Amino acid sequence: MKKKQYVLSAIALILCIALYLGGKTVPDKTAVTHSEGDGHDHSADAPQKIDFKTILAAAKKDITPNQSQRLTALENSVTRGDVKEQQIHAFHEMARFWLDSARKFELYAYYTSEAAKLENSEKSLTFAARLFLDRLMMSGDPAMQTWLANNAKVLLENALKINPANDSSRIGLGSCYLFGNISSNPMEGITMIRQVVEKNPGNTYGQMMLALGGKKSGQYDKAIERFLLIVQKEPDNIEAIFHIAECYDLKGDKTNAIVFYEKAKDLVKIPQAKEELNNRIMELKK
Question: Whole-prediction pTM value?
Answer without folding.
Answer: 0.80
